[in-house]
Amino acid sequence: MAYRLEHPFSGAVYAGLPDGRVEVTKDGRSGIFDMAGRYVSGELRTADPELIRWVGSHGYSPASRHLAGFADRATAESTGADG
Prior knowledge:
It is built from three helices and five strands; from the N terminus they run E-E-E-E-E-H-H-H. The longest helix has 10 residues, at 70-79. The protein has helices spanning 49-57, 61-68, 70-79; strands at 3-6, 13-16, 22-26, 29-33, 39-42. It is an alpha+beta fold. The termini are far apart. Helices cover 33% and strands 27% of the residues.
């Protein structure tokens, strides 16, 4: 699993899978959700869609930041360049 995070309110554990899906486990039950937060399989059928999206895309975040221009800004700030 690529990334794991415990939900601050429910205590459910959100674990990123290599294919971008997310496994959510709570009280011994688990479910798999796609990156849009839609249920795929398992006993647990509901979860926080925002946290699913965040955990599911966490492995891709450097590319996402680069595509959004954040990587360029961070580089400019750290080198003192004006961008």
